[in-house]
Structures are given as C-alpha cells and as structure tokens.
Please model this.
Amino acid sequence: MSLTDERLDPTINPAIAVQPGSLIRALNALKTPESIDLGLGEPTLSPKLAHFEAATRWVGVHGCRYSTNVGDAELRAAIAAYYAFPALPHAGNVCVTTGSAEAVFVTMKTLLDPAHDEILLVEPAFPIYAKIAQIEGVALRRVALSADEDFAFDPERIVAALTPATRMIVLCSPCNPSGRVISRAAVDAVATALERRPGPRVVVLHDEIYRELQFTDDVGSFGDRYAQTVAINSLSKSNALTGLRIGWLMAPLPMMPHVVKMHGWATSCANTFSQRVALEVFAAGELASQRPWYAAQRAAAVAAAAAAGLRFVAPEGAFYLFVETGATDGPAFSRALLAAEDVVAIPGSTFGPASAGWLRTTFVAPPDRLAEGYARIARFVARGRSA
Model:
C-alpha cells in the first residue's frame, strides 16, 4: 500500500470538522510588526519574575512531579479564601485547571446531558461556549443583549429566555467582547427567578476571567448570591500570564467528584510549576495589582475613540472597547480594515449574531498607537458609509 493511499486519511468527527477555526487567531496571523494590533485579547505587561524565582526554588527542593488531580491543596485553599463565596467556601470546592478554557470544557462536559439538556448562552460572548455545546451535541439557545442598550446585562431578558430544558446559563462578566459588567441587582434578579423556578436547578456558569480588571463599583458575582454557581477564573488576564496556562473552577461539593474525574481524564493535573507560581501570586496579594495600569489604558482608549467620532461601549471591565461599524459582513470588514489601514481588530459577529456590525478592539497597546488605531478605524468606517 502506498503511503499516499487515501485510505490512510483519518476519520474526522463531523462535529469537529464542520466548525471553522479561530478567526481571531487567523486575523492575528496576518499582522506585521508595523500593524496597529487591537486584536488578540492578550496583555502586553511583563510578569513579575520574583514569583517564578520562588517557584523555581521550590521545584529545586521538591521536584516537579504530578500534583493531585484536583490541584495543590495550598493553592486551592488560597483561591477559596480569596473569593470567599458563601456556597463555595472551601478548598474542596476548587479544582485547578489548565487555564480557564479547560475549566469551561470540563464543566460543560460533566454537567450537561446532550440527550436532554439545553444551555442558555448570554451573548455577545467569546466563541468557546457555543463551540463546546455544538461539538458535544448539547442544545444551544442564545439570548442576545441589546445593542441599543450598549449590551447591558438585562435580567428580565435572560430569565424570559429560559425553557423547561434549560440546565445551564453561561455568561462572562466582565464581558469579552463588550466590557460590560453585570450589576449586583441583575445577579440578584436572575438568582431569585432561578430559586423560584420549579424542577431541577439551573446551574450558572459564570466566567469571571476578567474579574480583577473592573472599573465600576457595582460588580455582581453569582458566586456571592446563587448556590448552584460554577465560578471560573484564571491568572491569564489579571496578571499577564496567558502562557502559564493556570486557571480554576469553583463548584458545589456534590459536583466536584465528577468534575475532577473529567479533569483528570483530560489533563491529569495542571502544571505543577505553574501552580507554584500561582500560589506565590496569591500569597503576595497581587491578583488585582495591574488594575491601575488598565484603568489608565481604558481612559486613553475612551478618549481616543471619542476624539475619532466613533460610537462605542464605555467598558466597565476587561480590556476591550466595543466599536460600532455598521458592517454587514464583519469578517470581510476586518480583513479590509487590515489591508487598507493596517489595523487588526475582531469582527463582532465572532461573538454571536447579536453583535454583528460591531468591532472588538483591545486597549493594551501604547496610548499613541491606540489613538492612531481608532483614527484609522473611523476613517475606514467613514469611507464605507460614503461609498
């Protein structure tokens, strides 16, 4: 048999095969060193080397062996103590994961039955949640927040979208891509409705990966209010450690043995060295230490976008400025923007149909580059409207 025989081609799971790859990564791959990069959702700050040095000394003494499947006990205790969620107060409520993406996957894989269950996805939202549901064969229902209300979290809209089959609500707040933050009153309204709902409890998967990067005092967290919450987070965004691949999920105790089983099958355990770095970050009390820098970047981005005459959503958290373009073909708009103006930005349609005609920009570039980038976007939008 020839090594080029077509029969050697692998069989691909059709649920995987039909899914396109990441448009965010594809656009990022097209940039040049001269491009104004407002695209990839990654911090540009450098990490604090002292945390790595301390972890290296620990490894020198203890080695770099597997941790337990669920993660380092000290780190899990530190995570639980830091957040102090009333229904998730113990190390036993915490599983350390290979980034927050694995935490999302493990949670959805473990808790949802494709034969019966439905998830309600609050959009706009990062694509991972919908992709996992589609690949796993779980029914996906979307509830779109209103562009007319700057994509504010609307508890009435969310509750009205529930069906008898809904077993999980998925939302990210602070939100990627809109930068909106769910308020305490909105969390309370949704939680109250869920508590009064007959039948099986609905789990809320609250992705809080941008929790430490918030610019408002009214920040709602389902972990503070609703017992059936799975809270997910990571050091990737808060501490500029995307490559460390360390995250965690916090879940009610009855769920944990099953979550840990799935986590163990997926990845055995999170990276031991990364866990020690994370413990150093928690011990130093530095989870939110970079927030002042992001607040200054936010102010620069808002001023630049306003000066350019763009309509945008004023971010309450994360490091995204969501800009209206009116483009009917978002991917084509972003590719043309890159070709004509050398600006990388992500089409809103990537985050669901609700945000078509919008553009996600990341405000981690130097302020002068932000100002130039928003000016170029405004110029390109104006050309399109006058064409």
Observations:
- Residues 49-283 form a domain with the Aspartate Aminotransferase; domain 2 fold (CATH 3.40.640.10).
